[in-house]
Request: fold
Amino acid sequence: MSRFGTDGGFAGHLGDALSALLDGELPAAQAEGARDHLAVCPDCTRELAAVDQARTWVRTLPPVDPPFGFYERMLLDRQPVLRGALGDRATLRRRAGVAAFGAAAAAVTVLGIGSPSPRPVSPSVPRLVEAHATSASVGADLLSKLAPVGVPVSFGR
Amino acid sequence: MRRGVVALALFVAAAPAPAVAGGPAPLEQARQAAERTSFEGLLEVRWRDGDVMRSERLTVAAAGGSLMVRGANLVMARPAFGRLLAHDGGGWEEMWLPSRAPSARPEGVPKYVTSSPTNGHAVAGRPTKLVEVHRGGALLERIFLDVETDLLLERDQYDARGEVVRRLAFESLTVDGSTTPPAEPEAPARHAPKSVAPERAGSAAPAALAEGYERMGVYRSGAVLQVLYSDGLYDLSLFQQQGRLRRSDLPPSGERVTVGRATGWRYPWPGGQLVMWSEGGKVFTAVSDAPADQVLAAVRSLPPTPSGELSLLGKAKRAAQALLEPLS
Reply:
């Protein structure tokens, strides 16, 4: 079920929609709603960063070539190859367990312990001052509110 | 603004002194005068920056309901275009749209006492009427309005020691019906923020802060959320964005302050004060024309921002959920 309402707003956290947002696959209204939510939700922002990081890591993994003749053996003699490679049922279960454990460990590393801390940001103070003054000037004495913005904010830097 | 100060006037009516200002409040009178009067003048902006008083001169012209401020930045207010700004000879940027009109300023805040007009000193050679704004017996502002037009000619803000911390004052002024409105800006860059429904912003946009500041609107520009507050006389914008502050990125001149559990820094700007701090994975910047003590009290009344940091167990749990969710 979609987390989004008809106006692009949504309930709860973004979850799977983060991946779609990164891929540019969300409709404009939903992408807008998602960005509204990201502006106020540290959890989703962290998750977005983690998903983005994980995707970057996966994309940068080197391609692995199969052993020489792998495709040929698979196509010409599929059953023996599979049986020989996987073994009996008990071995299959053990290997599945090991694979699940490995995947869980990787997930813990990627999504949990490796979660990035909030990135440093340096707010554009002049921009914020201008945004404040122009919005606060509505319905107010224009000289009082707008004239100070004629002077650039510098803080002596 | 008018309703807020009219409410103040009603409050003052019940108080013994000083007397109530008659008619519309002085700043509302000034607002209306600036919209209907054509004038041109040289305005001095002075503000205290630490131990130093800084000043800049700006030219101001108004006609046909539009107003233009010319300094290093150009600022234009036009009825049809909202607010526009140009930096250092660059192109115009549309900073605000008329359709983004915030809620009315709050009323009924018995916070300030506005005096009856008296004769003020001449400003730019023009006779004035003086109105004082007090709070708790302390002088906050002196406002000098042109006797002939009601234009604001001088506005002084005082600190607790009675010293001027900010001043806007015309050095020269010509009231002239032949002043032409500023030229219409061509294809300004669209940088006006978008309105956000307050319920979408949730706890990031409390309806009210200490000192009687009430929320007037919530806006978003890129990744920055702005919540605009007013107490009827002063306005305060609270900007929020995800991230953390690095002290090394901040100007060294800031005064260290505490906001909740966080350390912040306060800076004066030509129009007031700003405070920056980070907490719970967010960076906050409060910008206001209010006195510093009010700005600090208001931002300190914000609810604590949840840290959002998970314990190691919490992180493992979340990772396991992420792993198992697609299989369920």
